[in-house]
Amino acid sequence: MQFLTREFAGTADGTAGRNGATQALLSALGFDASMIAGLVNRGLATIAAEKVPAGGKLIDVGKAGITPAGWDALLDFGRRN
Fold it and tell me: What are the backbone angles phi and psi of residue 18, rounded to the nearest 5°?
């Protein structure tokens, strides 16, 4: 499965940032659950459960973040392309 494409690298860099991104946001941007799971399984991303405020109450969300190895892969990809 090819993860690092120019589109993926740009989207990942632009959305994950330092605080991560919710699974819902990543799904809306075209990252399906199997892609996110593949990144986690390869050590390029993490998923953590968090409670976030929404509509005056706390809801459970899954938040994805890019690991140091994931950032290294993005930087390496950027240098090669």
Answer: -75, -30
26: CATH: 1.10.10
For 64, the token pair is 């994805």
Structural domain that includes position 29: 6-80
Q: How far apart are CA 73 and CA 81, in angstroms?
A: 12
Alpha carbon distances (Å) from 54 to 36, 39, 60: 24, 28, 10
pTM of the full structure: 0.64
pLDDT digits (tens, 9 = 90+) for 48-76: 888 888 899 999 888 788 888 988 888 88
